[in-house]
Specification:
With 319 residues, the chain is mainly beta. The protein is built from no helices and 25 strands. A hairpin with a 5-residue loop joins strand 21 and strand 22.
Length: 319
Amino acid sequence: MRNKKIPVIAAACLVFIFAFAMPTNSMPSYAQSESMAFTYFTNWGSAGEGDGQFDGQNDVDCYNGKVYVPDYANHRIQVFDPNGKFLAKFGEGGEADGQFHKASALSIDQQGNLYIADQFNYRIQKFTADGQFLGKWGSEGEGDGQFLHPHVPANDAQGKLFVTDRDLANVQVFTNDGQFVKKWGSEGEADGQISKPESAIVDSKGNVYIADYGNNRIQKFTNDGAFVSKWGTKGVADGQFQGPSGLSIDANDNIYVTDKNNNRVQVFTSEGQFLTKFGSTGSGDGQLTDPEGVGVDKESGTVYVADTGNSRIVVFKPL
C-alpha cells in the first residue's frame, strides 16, 4: 500500500443530526451546513526515517487533540498535534511485544486505546494512547483468530473490534481484549461477498461499512454481519471508485472514502447518497497521490488524509 488553495467543492443538502456519541460524551462543536464543503488547510511530512517523515503511511486517525499515523515501513506509530507538530513515536522493527513488521493501520476506541494491524507479524497489538503495550492476538493462518493480511480494524461502542483480512476476504470480530467472536464474508462479487477488503468503520447505530476494494464498492452490514446495502461501481464519476481504500465517519454518520486511484476523497450519507468530493491528482496543496487512509475529527469536522504517494498527511477543513 502506499499555500495555494484548491477550489471549495459543494454538494447536496444534508439533515443536521446530533446523534453521535462522542468519546468525551460532548456534542460536536461544528455544525453541518446545508451545503457540505471542504477547503485545503495544510500538509506535513516527507519521505524518510526522521521524526515527521514517513515510509508508506497508509492510515491516519485522531483522538483527544492528537493525530496518530502508522508509519508502515518504518515500523512505528507517529503522533502529531492537529497542525502537524511532531509529539511522539513508539515502536520499532521486530517481533517482540510493541514491535512491528509493517504497521499497517489503526483504530482508536472510546477510551483512547489504540489497536494496530501489525501486518506481517499477523497480529493485532493494543496500546494506550501514549504508546504503552497492553496486549496482542493473532497468528499466521486461516483459522479463527488467524490472519494472512490483517488490514484496518474498527471499533464499535460495545467494545467489539472488526478486522478485515485482505487475503482471506473476510471480517473477523473480537472483543477488545482479543477474544474471537465470529467472522463473516467470502471471496466474490455477490451481496455480502468481498474482494480485497481494505478498511472497516462502524456508525453510531453499530452498522459496519467495508471498503470492498476489489469490487469498487462500499458494503454495509449489521453489527452481526448481515448484508444491508451497497453502493459504487468502477469509474471516475461521482459515487464511482477506482480502489476504495480508507474509511472514516463523522459525528453525523457520514462516510468518508479515499478513492485511491482517482486521487480523491468522496463523502456519502450512511445510506450511500453522494454528498461531496475533494482532492485531485498531484503533489500540490490539496492534491493527492494514491491516498489510502482518512480520519475525521468528530468535534471539529477536520479531515486528515494519508497521502501515501506523496509521503505526507493532507488536512482539509469544513466550511
